[in-house]
Design a protein that fits this description.
- This is AraC family transcriptional regulator with amidase-like domain.
- Keywords: DNA-binding, Transcription, Transcription regulation.
- It is built from 18 helices and six strands.
- The longest helix has 20 residues.
- It has a six-stranded mixed sheet, with helices on both faces.
- β3 and β4 form a beta hairpin.
- It is about 55% helix and about 10% strand.
- The protein is α/β, with parallel strands linked by helices.
- It folds into two domains: about 150 residues, Rossmann fold; about 120 residues, Homeodomain-like (Arc Repressor Mutant, subunit A, Orthogonal Bundle), CATH 1.10.10.
Amino acid sequence: MECGTRSQRNNVAELRVLPHLDAARRIGLLLFSGFALPEAATVLEMFQSANALSQSEPAMSGKLRYDVTLLSIAGGRIDSSSSVFVWTESVENRRFSDGFHTLFVAGGAGARHALRDERLIRWLQREGSRSEAVVPIGDGRLLLDAAGVERSTHGWDAFLRGAGEPHRSAEGGFAAVATAPVRKALALIEQDFGGDFAREAVGRVMTQQQTSFTATIRENVSGFVSERIQASAKWLEANGDRPITIDDAAQIAAMSERNFLRRFKIEMGVTPSDYLLYVRIDMCCRLLVDTDLPVDKVARRCGLGSGGWLAKLFRKHLSTTPTEYRTNMRRTTA
C-alpha cells in the first residue's frame, strides 16, 4: 500500500454530502455517538445513487435532486459504533423555512443520553411537525417517542406497502437485508422517479456494496466478521482510488497495525493489501465499461499507476486484457 498524507489520515472517515441546491428535496440524517454506520451509510448511498442516476439521464437531469445533510446536536465529529468518525453540522445551523422533506433519526448510546436534552427535544418537535416523514433508525425511535413525533406524518410511507416495490420486484437479494429505513428511502425514490428508476438505483448500490471481486473474497470469510473489520473493509472500498496505508485502515478498525493485519486475514480470508488490490481492479472494471477513458487513465484513477501494470493484473486475475474486457462486457450488455 502507498503512503498517504497526514491530512488524509485525519479525514479518512468523512462522508461526502451533496451541496445544497435550491431545487432539491432536503433529507436530514440526525446522528448520535455510537450510531450504526452500515445502516446510515446505506440510506445515504441510496440518495446519492439516485442523484448520480438522474444526472446521467438527460430526461431526468435538473428535475430533482436530494440534498442530504448529516446532523448532530453540536456539529463536528461523531463516532459510530464501528469507531469510524463522520463530520456533521449542528442542528441549529441548518434551518429552513419549510423544514426537511424526510428526517432520519439514528440511534446509538448518544441517542439514549440525548433523551434528557430539552433543546434537542424541542428541535425534534419543531422539525417533526414540518417534515413530510420522520424515520427512526434503531434506538432513534426512543427520541421520537420522547418528543411525541409521529414516525411518518404524511403517508408516503404507505406507498411502500403498495404494488411495485423496487426492492421486492427486482432486487430480492437486497430486500433480504434491507432494513425499514432503507426500504423507506427506496419508497421515496420510487415515488419521485418511478419503479424502473428506483430499481436501477438499487442495482447501483448493490454493485457498490458487493462488487464481483469483494463477493469472491467474501466466499472465504469466516463465519463471523466483526463490525470493526467490516468497517475497515468498507472504508478500503470507498477510498481505493487514493494513496492509503495499512495504518490508515487499522485506525478505522481502532486496532494496532499488527492486530489489524492478523484479524483482517482471519476474518476476511485475505490480507488488507490483497483486498485493496481486488477493490481497485473492480473499480477499473466498472470504469472500462461505463466510460471511454484510455486504459492508462483508468489505471491512474483507480490507484494502479499505469496501463501496463493494469494489463498484467487483468491477465493474472481475469485472463484477458483491459481492452478485451471492455469490448466483451459492452457486447454482453448491449
